Amino acid sequence: xxxxxxxxxxxxxxxxxxxxxxxxxxxxxxxxxxxxxxxxxxxxxxxxxxxxxxxxxxxxxxxxxxxxxxxxxxxxxxxxxxxxxxxxxxxxxxxxxxxxxxxxxxxxxxxxxxxxxxxxxxxxxxxxxxxxxxxxxxxxxxxxxxxxxxxxxxxxxxxxxxxxxxxxxxxxxxxxxxxxxxxxxxxxxxxxxxxxxxxxxxxxxxxxxxxxxxxxxxxxxxxxxxxxxxxxxxxxxxxxxxxxxxxxxxxxxxxxxxxxxxxxxxxxxxxxxxxxxxxxxxxxxxxxxxxxxxxxxxxxxxxxxxxxxxxxxxxxxxxxxxxxxxxxxxxxxxxxxxxxxxxxxxxxxxxxxxxxxxxxxxxxxxxxxxxxxxxxxxxxxxxxxxxxxxxxxxxxxxxxxxxxxxxxxxxxxxxxxxxxxxxxxxxxxxxxxxxxxxxxxxxxxxxxxxxxxxxxxxxxxxxxxxxxxxxxxxxxxxxxxxxxx
Length: 485
Hints:
Blueprint: H1 6-45, H2 54-140, E1 147-148, E2 151-152, H3 157-178, E3 236-237, E4 250-253, E5 256-260, E6 274-278, E7 281-284, H4 290-300, H5 322-336, E8 340-341, H6 345-353, E9 406-412, E10 435-438, E11 454-457, E12 466-468, E13 471-472
Parallel strand pairs: 9-12
Antiparallel strand pairs: 1-2, 3-4, 4-7, 5-6, 7-13, 8-13, 9-10, 10-11
């Protein structure tokens, strides 16, 4: 167990001194209240005959009134001191809990370090034993020469070869422990890059449009090429609301089996990786915008969320709770007669990965100006969200699944996917004190927007970096992913 740092000892000493001072003030206030109460009691029972004149009686009444007021003030001060003592005790308890968590984390790291040292010592012992065995074999070997390229093999060559092999093993184990928290590098056949086809840009305004558009769109003039597994553009589906205006642009996804999460020896909540099968569903091409959410808020008499001064329109809506995001999907379902909902965590990761196995859908590293985050190299980094569809879509035709605004999903949070279904459904039973959010944000580092990284918040949390996108179940009259009815 690591010793407590000096700063913690000083902090505990200061807290104890403050607590003792407040306790002394409280005791003094109680004594003063008792003294004033005693004087008031004496004044109440003093015989009226002792007061010679009306002037003296009036003066005595005024003095008693002042004493009563002083008593009330002392009682209020005592209540305030008591409340402050309780607040400080709660703060100290929170601090002790946080320190205890840090202490446990330090113990875990120390244990891992001790295990690494033990493994190195074991390998060192094996190295010594292998060296002795090699020397014994060399001494027992016949002295007749062995022809290698016209000369004799030096006697030291055999033990040196074994020594070199053991040293390489020790180096590999040391690198394993040093690199344990770094993401795995994909195998050459795990990240196949195929030429990009033009990706259809779905509409983001409320202007009328058909449910499906098949005309070839213009390619983006700038930005790095996207990574995709198909030469077919994504199919966009839009339902009509009751007033005839189009609903959100939905990308039709056929589903499939993929590896969800990421294996890590550090115990992060996104490990271990597991196989999940996701059925057909539809996913919004972009995050819900202020324009779309404001229409729902006005229709249901809700307060409009704050845009932080960045502008509304096609920027992703932020500052909405999980409950409000769920209510928006229920309103869409009533307006269209279709089952809109929040995506499950498995569906979200399946759509964000878009058939790739790397941390980001475009590759192993974050790269510059791919999206918006704290250190992504865009003009909006750590300043604000960007309008939706400001960056290239992933191979499935989904925009800004990494960065911009973090997105609520339907699942209750469980560390390390405990009890999570393997069929792509959301985990909604048991303890739902926290809900899952995915995708990173404009003010979060690039590592937080890797496809497998998870976040959690209370369902009523409203943050300036937290929004959502919607999903939809395919109906019996919808076309499937292959275009058949």
